[in-house]
Amino acid sequence: MADVSAHYDGSAPTYHEQYDPEKIWTNADYPANFYRLRKVIDRLRDAGAQSVYEFGAGEATPMIRVHEALGIAVAANDISPEMVRLGRENLQRHGLDPALLSLLDVQDEAAINAEVALRGEFDAVMALGVIPHVEDDAAFVSAMSRFLRPGGTLLLQFRNAMFSMFTFNRLTKEFILDEVMAPIPQKFRDAVAADLDSRLAVDKPPIRTWDKDAPAYDEILARFHNPFELADVVRAQGFGDISFHWYNFHPTYPMIGGQFDPREYREAQIALEADTSWRGMFLCSAGFIEARKSA
Ligand SMILES: C[S@@+](CC[C@H](N)C(=O)[O-])C[C@H]1O[C@@H](n2cnc3c(N)ncnc32)[C@H](O)[C@@H]1O
Questions:
Q1: Which of 28, 99, 179, 196 has the fewest CB atoms lying closer than 10 Å?
Q2: How many angstroms does the Cα of residue 193 sit away from the middle of ligand 1?
Q3: Where does ligand 1 bind, in terms of residues with CB under 6 Å?
Q4: Residue ranges of the chain whose pLDDT lies below 50
Q5: Structural domains of the chain in order of their starting residue, each with its CATH number
């Protein structure tokens, strides 16, 4: 398993591009994080947060945009030295104190203790694109909670395991066998496994083998989460009032997306970002949990 920090050191110089409104149509990859950030800002506004602490802030564009949109206090951390270096420059360029971004590993308890002592409590805490990379979900949510006042708002992004029920590929097979059928006797699971091989595109997505300068996203720990199980983890850490928000919509399953005019396909994706129904649980490859810390 490649190193998460090295991966993000490699992507740091171009990371800001996904937040550039000029590049929404020209970026090769769908600018999912652009829409995620808009939804996050809406949730913080609705919650009336006057301050937010961010885990894994990257090169600081989200904390700067949140500050500019809502005029609220921000502080954050990240494990990647290159993200933090660029993030501090970014903060300074926008008239914010570079020291608002700390270099630390959120899985290091001593580092979290020191950061809590330095920063204090906030009205909201958020982690966007970070829990896929950590080993222990409960410890991660518990660490987030330490930055939050009672009654405060938690925003926790995750890669959506339920999306595999709409991909009809290897991920679907794995989810059905390992999760949906987990309590079912092996004999039945074996039969379903053999049957699914003839029904699903089990050769997709391809497992990447080529070399790159930095380890690719599919070479680092980048877990999917079952939204129901993650909500249980959040609840067990003393949170209630839990809701899901979905983003990164897919009008078709990805493997036939290439059949369509790219502009038309992207227009359909963007239009779907306004959908707040249950469909997001299946059409979206990612989402975030919103929850309130018990008073
Ligand atoms: C997908 S990026 C998202 C960056 C930012 N939150 C955003 O939305 O633009 C995930 C970030 O989490 C950071 N990260 C991953 N594991 C971490 C850890 N254990 N401690 C602190 N930061 C971490 C990475 O370095 C990276 O900058």
A1: 28
A2: 35
A3: 4-5, 8, 33, 56-58, 61-62, 77-80, 83, 105-107, 128-130, 133-134
A4: 210-212
A5: 4-168+208-293 (3.40.50.150), 170-203 (no CATH)
Tokens 């129901």 -> residue = 228
Integer Cα distance of 278 and 245 in angstroms: 9
Indicate which atom in ligand 1 lies nearest the CA of residue 106: 20
Q: Give nearest CA residue, ligand 1 atom 3.
A: 129
Q: Say if pTM beats, i.e. exceeds, 0.85.
A: yes
Nearest Cα residue to 249 out of 217, 223, 287, 222:
287
Which of 79, 82, 115, 218 most suits a substitution to test ligand 1, by most atoms within 8 Å of the C-beta?
79
| Residue matched to tokens 């360029």 | 93
Give the span between the Cα atoms of 9 and 24, in whole angstroms.
23
Quote the ligand 1 centre to 68 CA distance (angstroms): 21
Instruction: Classify the C-alpha dihedral 98-104-107-112 as positive or negative.
Output: negative
Q: How far apart are CA 146 and CA 109, in angstroms?
A: 11
122 vs 250: CA distance, rounded Å: 34
| Chain centre distance of CA 189 | 31
Span 36-85, pLDDT tens digits:
999 999 999 999 999 999 999 999 999 999 999 999 999 999 999 999 99
Structure tokens of 31? 């600018």
Alpha carbon nearest to ligand 1 atom 12, residue: 56
C-alpha span between 163 and 284 (Å, rounded): 6
